[in-house]
Amino acid sequence: MLEKILILLCLSSALAEQPCKPDASDGYKVRLSIKTALGDEAYVWNENEMFLFRATLAFAMRSHLNGQEFDVSNIIVCDETPRVTFWFVVTSPLNTSGLVDKGVVEEAIRMSRNRINSAFLLTDKTLEFIGITPTLTAPVNPDTPPWLIVFGVVMGAVGAGIIVVLVSPLVLKKRKKNEETDEDEEETGVKAVENGSTREGVYNMSFSDDERLTQM
Amino acid sequence: MDREAESAEQTQVHGLQEMTERPKWDNKVQYLLTCIGFAVGLGNVWRFPYLCQVYGGGAFLIPYVIALVFEGLPLLHMELAIGQRLRMGSVGVWNSISPYMGGLGVASMAVSFLVGLFYNMILAWILWYFFHSFQSPLPWRDCPLNLNHTGYVSECEKSSAVNYFWYRETLNVTPNIETSGSLQWWLVLCLATAWCLVYICFIRGIETIGKAIYITATFPYLVLTIFLVRALTLSGATDGLIYLFTPNWETLKNPEVWLDAATQIFFSLSLAFGGLIAFSSYNAQKNNCERDALIVGCVNSFTSIYASIPIFAILGFKANENYNACRNWNILRLTNAFNIADENITLENYGDWLNYLNTTDPSEVDNLNLKTCDLQTFLDQSASGTGLAFIVFTEAVINMPGSQVWAVLFFVMLFSLGLSSMFGNLEGVLTPLLDLHMVPSWMPKEIFTGLICLSSFTVALIFTLGSGNYWLEIFNSYVGSMPLLIIAFFEIISVVYIYGINRFNDDIEWMSGRRPNFYWQATWRFISPFMLLVVFVAYVVVEAEKQPTYNAWNPDYVDFPLADVQPYPKWVYAICVLLSVLPVVSIPIVAMYKFTGFLKKYIENRHIYMTLSLV
């Protein structure tokens, strides 16, 4: 009798240990790089942190599988290393000896990845679930590419500059013409007075006819 | 004597016409800045530092200075002097010196036009990068995601984000030169912007260039100084500088070093384009051109050396970053494989840890396939030309804090450097056309310059095709090299032996008040022509030995991302030869044409003489 009880105990303890082992088919390896992420503000990984991890994972399972009441005890952890890596498996609350399928666990983690990361102040890179690739952030695609905006600004400025440079001499010419017509009316009065002026270039019409006559 | 009297008359008549019309510089500073801006171009920033690095650092300065003193300065002085004396662009000047050498002017004009085409395409690329520098994060930092968002685009993953941005998103390059692809609309927009910017500065010739040059010639120096200060504070900068300037005297025994120094000085000073002749033709005749030549030549070389310091400091920083990234990757592999607490292995104790792990578990360490990280290999990754600016430098800028600011500054600096050189190219085309009175009198100058820019833009659309980058390389190698050497050689022979060195000395004495001293006499008469001939022959020999191949970017290539080295197809090679020959073919053609005209006249005269004497 005693022997049977002993064998049963051994078996049950063996069964209890079996679900979580390295390279378990339904388990995942987790790797944390706390010092890399937080530097001086890094916290020490201890039992409490491990408890938080198991609780967070239970929360993730609950959120994904609505209705099933996962508890901390459903998350079994083993093979911890100083690197801070460990393996975990998730047992179903409905059947404590059965493990939740790998795919289901993956989906649950993907859904709540952000929450799990923030619970530990880590990122996708520093809290790694080996085998679950983080979903790459879709690039932000604005409607108008920003380079077209800069292009538009530069082209607009240059275009305006070209128009200004081309049009300004025409405007100046017009202004000069208007001023000149005003000046001409003034000058005809002045010319009659300034006969012996020092302006050499003035072509004095009154003398040219005489010259032609004398030459002939 | 008749010919001399004729040409003297011609110059006098031209002089009379021009004294009423020819534009001139507002002041001496404008003229000097324009010449300096023309000489100082993109090559000073991205070709000289590369040559320094490849040819043994500080030791390269020796052939460089020798080439400057015996080849660069004499040719520079000569071009400035003849432009100033004869007061015409390249075509008019060479026609005046000797009608047989009129082809030289046409050749200079053709080369200026062809170089202006592809040079502005480079400015268009710089503008593209400038437009993209106003984003956070910079678009060349990350690879884009593939269609179903599961990973990165494979072409980008295999090469790098910077390479992908340059070859795919900017150029959209085809795998080889036969595949032309289509016009890339974004490049057409950038090219149009570049030509508009050039047009607005060039619109009234030197009147507007002289205003624009105050900014475009001085701004690069400001940016280089800012970069210098910033670069020297980066980690790894000293590694880059030591690497650059450590002289390796062995390289001086290699004749290619001397050839490259001579060609570098020659192309760097922008000789034989006709642009310098055009600029000095707008000067007052009584001007000390000897001092101008010395200033321009020395400032150009000083700029090359000054620019290489921040460039190499930044390249050293980049090599250091890559080296640390390599070592950190190794550390992570070891940490993860042996489950050691993170951050226990650091860059400092990495060596000790590696030894310890090797002794305890060598097989495991082997299985990890750790990379060999060597700072020298990263420093050796040199690049010149567009590779330096658009791949290496952009990668370095990503790692600098405040990347957008540095990227914007860098590309604006490159743009100003290129813009001031473009002025010289276009003046080399405009001034001869104006002097030949090929402009209809009803057409204002603004419309004529606009036509030049429009036609250049239209032809340059070739470079916006998918294969445009390959065509640009062809233009760069075949137009911007050999024809210039030929033109320069004939230039100096014409001035010294056809115009007459004594007459030239008299002219310079009249202009600057001093007769050129023994150094100028010796270099003009013998040393420079001889050096040019040697450089030309050596260049032809070296080029003939090389197989005409090009580096293609082919994502389907077996060894991608290494360059797929392809030979040029026959028709492309024919175009290359045509590009080298066409500009210079005008020299013998014009000479032959004038000679046949002379022969005809001579035979006619003889005929008349004989008939008269018979009578």
TrEMBL record, chain A:
PROSITE patterns: COLLECTRIN_LIKE (PS52010). This is Collectrin, amino acid transport regulator. The lineage of its organism: Eukaryota, Metazoa, Chordata, Craniata, Vertebrata. Keywords: Cell membrane, Glycoprotein, Membrane, Phosphoprotein, Signal, Transmembrane, Transmembrane helix. The chain crosses the membrane at residues 147-172. GO terms for biological process: positive regulation of amino acid transport; protein localization to plasma membrane. It comes from the Eukaryota. GO terms for cellular component: extracellular exosome; plasma membrane. Residues 24-216 form the Collectrin-like domain. It is found in: Cell membrane. It is a single-pass type I membrane protein. InterPro entries: Collectrin, Collectrin_dom.
From TrEMBL, chain B:
The keyword Transmembrane applies. The keyword Transmembrane helix applies. GO terms for cellular component: plasma membrane. It is a multi-pass membrane protein. Keywords: Glycoprotein, Membrane, Metal-binding, Sodium, Symport, Transmembrane, Transmembrane helix, Transport. It comes from the Eukaryota. Na(+) 2 binds at N44. The chain crosses the membrane at residues 29-48, 54-76, 97-130, 185-206, 218-245, 265-282, 294-315, 405-426, 447-472, 478-501, 522-542, 571-593. It is found in: Membrane. Pfam families: SNF. GO terms for biological process: amino acid transport; sodium ion transmembrane transport. InterPro entries: Na/ntran_symport, Neutral_aa_SLC6, SNS_sf. Na(+) 1 binds at G37, A39, V40, S268, N300, L417, S421. GO terms for molecular function: metal ion binding; symporter activity. PANTHER family: INACTIVE SODIUM-DEPENDENT NEUTRAL AMINO ACID TRANSPORTER B(0)AT3, SODIUM/CHLORIDE DEPENDENT TRANSPORTER. NCBIfam families: Na_transp. Belongs to the sodium:neurotransmitter symporter (SNF) (TC 2.A.22) family. This is Transporter. It comes from Dicentrarchus labrax. The lineage of its organism: Eukaryota, Metazoa, Chordata, Craniata, Vertebrata. The gene is LOC127367346.
